[in-house]
Amino acid sequence: MPGTRFTDIRRFDTIDSTNRYLLDEARAGAAEGVVAVAEHQSAGRGRLGRSWEAPAGANLLASVLLRPGLPSDQRYLASAVVALSAIEGVDATVGYRLGIKWPNDLLAPDGRKVAGILAEADLSAPTPGHSDVDPAIVVGIGVNVNWPGDDSALPDHLVGVAASLRQLVGGPVDRTELLGAMLQALEPRVADLGTATGRERQAAALAQACTTIGTAVRVELADTRFEGTAIAVTAEGHLVVDVGDGTRTVVAGDVVHVRSRT
Ligand code: BT5
Fold first, then answer.
1. CB distance 8 to 33 below 8 Å
2. pLDDT at position 261 over 50
3. Quick one: pLDDT at residue 99?
4. What is the CATH classification number for the domain harbouring 249?
5. Which domain, by its residues, includes 43?
6. How many CB atoms sit inside 10 A of residue 69's CB?
7. Which helix (H) or strand (E) element contains residue 26?
8. Rounded distance, CA 76 to CA 162, Å?
9. Within a domain: residue 262?
10. How is the chain split among helix, strand and coil, in percent rounded to 5?
């Protein structure tokens, strides 16, 4: 994408996972800004060992390699800027506004999931000869662009859960244009990650776009779960939940909007 750091765009017909590919490239010393895009993933991954489903040639499946030099407690902002850029890119391409369900889903107003984001960091020892580079964060995004065309295309477990831009706007959507608009929007946001004021700006943008705030939620952590009302997003991008007798701040976890079907 001219005028951005995303000039090295690598396209694959089929790959196991664009995230896996870029993490390997990062370990070998690849520079920030490499983008991997696939027509099809044979092992597209979600968080916590889950999988991401998309038939060949219909949706946007892309990952970007960032080396944002973020303080470790602010790494979530790398994922947040991709979510914000995707919202902007979708708006610019089809004039439709999605919301962010914390931490990593883009939802239609009715709560159906249109996109998912998976950020994976390579925090291993820097590759010999590359000790001066920041740790890599690979942020992958799957956007349901043209699949499903209608709900009959979905497996049972995604009916009422997933929706595509095509369904939302009533016609086919150009994936290349969408990727370009996303990367354009991502450039200034990634630049912001390099300064404290920039990070504050991105956290504030996240808080504005995050439809989880004000919603009754169930938070599912590895060993426990609790319910409350999401009330804010911190400067690190973490979710603050009012649990009645106080607040709890969630750094990483699954959140269910308990009054919607997500
Ligand atoms: C995510 O995980 O939502 C992250 C998805 C990231 C996918 C991209 S594609 C490019 C890059 N390369 C990869 O290998 N991955 C990234 P999570 O929050 O765990 O949600 C996964 C769950 O969403 C699944 O268990 C399904 O229930 C549901 N799901 C799967 N495919 C879906 C789809 N196309 N649309 C909506 N929901 C889906």
1. yes
2. no
3. 97
4. 2.30.30.100
5. 9-209
6. 11
7. helix 18-27
8. 24
9. no
10. 30, 30, 45
DSSP letter (8 states) at residue 210: B
Ligand 1 atom nearest to 43, measured from its CA: 14
Overall average pLDDT of the 27-56 stretch: 96
Tokens 């949706």 belong to residue? 59
d(C-alpha 83, C-alpha 89), whole Å: 10
Spatial strand order of the sheet with 225-233 comes to: 247-250, 239-242, 225-233, 216-220, 254-257
Cβ partners under 8 Å of residue 170, min gap 6: none
pLDDT at 262 over 50: no
Residue at 174: amino acid letter: D
Among residues 193, 209, 225, which one ends one of the domains?
A: 209
Q: Which residues line ligand 1 (CB under 6 A)?
A: 17-19, 41, 44-48, 50, 52-54, 61-63, 104-105, 113, 116-118, 140-142, 144, 158, 161-162
pLDDT tens digits for 26-38? 999 999 999 999 9
Identify whether residues 88 and 199 lie together within a single domain. Answer: yes
**Ligand 1 pocket: which of 52, 66, 220 to mutate (most atoms within 8 A of CB):** 52
